[in-house]
Design brief:
Blueprint lengths: L9 H14 L15 H66 L3 H7 L3 H80 L28 E2 L17 E4 L5 E3 L4 E7 L6 E7 L3 E11 L6 E2 L4 E5 L10 E6 L7 E2 L1 H7 L6
Antiparallel strand pairs: 1-2, 2-9, 3-8, 4-5, 4-7, 5-6, 6-8, 6-9, 9-10
Helix pairs in contact: 1-2, 1-4, 2-4
């Protein structure tokens, strides 16, 4: 799930969410004992928290990979410096051997007495001395650079270990939340199935809506998904060809209105289970089916990206998913392929 805002206080938020879940009733009733709809918002909040933990985990993993790349680069630089130092030492060895062959083993005074041209010998000696000094300085500089690089490598390794520990903590938190989330989702879907069997839709669940800053006029109906059955596909699950695009998502995933419009219908029962139809400008209608809960009432105005319900598996469904349709009338039989329609409205599905 994408997000334009980072949440640095992840651990307190997740722990608060877990404490909230533990404190709330788990039998589908409000604290006062009446039949309530608190479970829907609870699942949505937990779903957000789990997604936030996942984002934070991925951020930590990417940061750790960056640190790993730095450590590898430090090691490469160290190897290069070591090779340079070895080459310089090899040069020193050659100089020493050359000095010995040229009489370097004799005292300088004796070599001057024996030399045919003492001035030339002195100039050569000074050149050798300067070369030795330059090599010594270079070796000293490289040794200091090697020390600095080793310190940087140790620092990068410590950072990697800290990030690794952070990722492990995030993974544990995420696993704990997902466990609570599965329980809440199961209860939410049980309530939805009971409502459909009774022929009545559950009352609108007032979800804690995310901020809706000025953004695109059209969005995908869910933020994170895998595309499953496509428009026009056939199979034993449908009496005719498939009339929409399915988005494989867990129970309780917030479902969004793809664009601004008016809620034309909130229905339950039949093949679509709990479903919502929204009327948009330009003569188009969108349907969101197999929901576990609805967050809008008939006649409500909605904006692009506003949560209108939570995904489920009510009706003729073999597993949790959102069935999404685009129609030219509010009724079945007028559906068109939603993938190119969304793409024409600036929402390419991935």
């Amino acid at each position: 799930m994408r997000s334009s805002r980072r949440r640095p206080l992840l651990v307190p938020v997740l722990l608060c969410a877990l404490a909230l879940l533990a404190a709330r009733p788990t039998d589908g009733t409000d604290a006062d004992g009446g039949s309530g709809t608190a479970l829907g918002p609870q699942v949505a909040r937990l779903y957000q928290d789990a997604a936030t933990a996942t984002r934070q985990y991925e951020d930590g993993r990417r940061a750790a990979e960056t640190q790993r790349a730095k450590a590898v680069e430090y090691e490469r630089l160290l190897d290069a410096q070591r090779q340079k130092t070895d080459a310089m030492r090899e040069d020193l060895g050659r100089i020493a051997r050359a000095q010995y062959r040229d009489g370097g083993g004799l005292p300088l005074t004796a070599r001057m007495l024996l030399a045919e041209n003492p001035d030339e010998l002195m100039r050569g000696q000074r050149a050798v001395s300067r070369a030795n000094q330059a090599v010594d300085r270079a070796i000293g500089e490289n040794l200091r650079a090697e020390t600095r690089l080793a310190a940087d490598e140790a620092k990068a390794q410590a950072a990697w270990q800290a990030l690794d520990k952070r990722n492990a903590e995030l993974a544990r938190l995420k696993k704990k939340i997902e466990g609570k989330l599965e329980s809440a989702r199961s209860q939410l879907e049980g309530q939805a199935d009971s409502s459909v069997a009774a022929g009545s839709c559950p009352g609108a669940v007032r979800l804690d809506q995310p901020d809706l800053p000025a953004g695109p006029a059209w969005v995908a109906p869910v933020e994170t998904y895998e595309l499953s059955a496509s428009f026009g596909s056939g199979g034993s699950r449908w009496a005719n060809l498939h009339t929409g695009q399915d988005f494989a998502v867990p129970v309780g995933t917030p479902v969004r209105s793809v664009g601004a419009g008016r809620v034309l219908k909130v229905s339950c029962g039949g093949a679509f289970g709990i479903h919502v139809v929204i009327q948009h400008a330009g003569g188009y209608y969108t349907q969101y089916a197999h929901l576990a809960a609805v967050a809008v009432d008939q006649g409500d105005r909605v904006e692009a990206g506003q949560w209108i319900g939570q995904s489920g598996t009510t009706g003729n469904s073999t597993g949790p998913h959102l069935h999404f349709e685009v129609r030219v009338t509010p009724e079945m039989g007028s559906a068109l392929d939603p993938v190119p329609w969304l793409s024409e409205h600036g929402v390419p599905l991935r």
